[in-house]
Amino acid sequence: MNLTLEGRARRLGDNINSDYIIASRRKRETLDPGVLKRYLLEAIDPGFATSVQPGDVLVAGRNFGCGSAMEIAVTVLQAAGIRAVLAQSFARSFYRNAINNGLLALEWDTTGIREGDRVQLKESAPLPGLMLEILEAGGLVSWVRAGRLLAPKD
To answer: Which domains does the chain have, with CATH numbers?
Structure first.
């Protein structure tokens, strides 16, 4: 998959917990990402959700998405229009939820990227083939619906 990504950087730090992405108390009210996107990252910046523009790229440090493994953290980012997440490292459960839901998550050296910078990537995505297929299909459900099941091993 040749990756072409361009968007405005929204800079975050290290250890962005999935409960920072969307608070547990908000998830008790509803699981509708279209509603929850209004509360995106409110624990870090109460005005963040209203400042997000479609196509923005989250840029973070280490251990992005740690904490709860609920995929709602990923689907709320997508509902808000976040195009991708670039981080120095990801919590494994967030990373898999991102790929399975069709959100591009790339481990990247983000040290020089500042809030508001234009992020431009034009290269081959450093992801395994199966993950690329899932992303290209728009997520795991779309990939399965397209009949792309793994062949059984003998």
So the answer is: 2-145 (3.20.19.10)
